[in-house]
Specification:
Number of domains: 1
CATH class: Mainly Beta
Number of helices: 3
InterPro entries: F420H2_bilvrd_red/Heme_oxyg, Pyridox_Oxase_N, Split_barrel_FMN-bd
Low-confidence stretches: none
CATH topology: Pnp Oxidase, Chain A
Organism: Streptomyces pakalii
Helix content: 10-25%
EC number: 1.-.-.-, 1.4.3.5
Order of helices and strands: EHEEEEHEEHEEEE
CATH architecture: Roll
Pfam families: PNPOx_N
Largest sheet: 11 strands, antiparallel
Enzyme class: oxidoreductase
Number of strands: 11
Shape: globular
Mean pLDDT: 95
Distance between the termini: 14 Å
Strand content: 35-45%
Length: about 170
């Protein structure tokens, strides 16, 4: 979260939380988004059917960033409907912390921003994920161009698993 952003309104949903549970603070939720090696992106196809795919990404400046080839299913879905859900966490029942982010995917085309994001991608995932920046896109020799999208959360949910179970909602203005 950048220093100019307002922290979200945070509340515990007691209906889905253990007695005595407390809301998880936003910095803890943001840390999960920062450190996650993998995210699941849910989009909607133009005919209304859902589409879910795993992908890598970078949490930066208050948004989760991912990239996709312009002809891939997720890019075509986003052209018709930019509303998305991104999830990450531990695939366990009684331990860990899962995060769900709801928001709108917006394409990033600014050269300086893309260059900074390319450095962040490589720092997180290693040299195999080196991107150059050209014509408002990431570029890899083997893979070609990839559009980069940013999802600023409208709402984020945190699900604490194990004792205590908790469901925290973060609402952004």
């Amino acid at each position: 979260m950048s220093t100019t952003e307002q922290p979200p309104a945070t509340e515990l949903d007691a209906r889905y939380s253990s007695e005595g549970a407390t809301a998880r603070p936003w910095p803890e939720t943001a840390a999960v988004l920062t450190d996650a090696p993998l995210y699941w992106l849910s989009t909607v196809r133009p005919d209304g059917r859902p589409h879910v795919t795993p992908l890598i990404g970078v949490w930066s400046q208050g948004a989760l960033h991912f990239c996709t080839g312009p002809q891939e299913r997720k890019a075509r879905n986003l052209a018709a409907n930019p509303e998305v859900v991104l999830t990450t966490g531990a695939n366990t029942l009684d331990s860990g912390f899962d995060v769900v982010v709801e928001g709108r995917a917006e394409r990033v085309t600014d050269h300086e921003r893309l260059t900074a994001l390319a450095r962040e991608w490589e720092a997180k995932y290693g040299a195999d994920w080196h991107f150059d920046v050209e014509d408002g896109s990431f570029v890899q020799a083997e893979a070609g161009h990839a559009h980069v999208f940013a999802v600023h959360p409208r709402t984020a949910f945190g699900f604490g698993k194990g004792e205590p179970y908790s469901q925290t909602r973060h609402r952004f203005t």
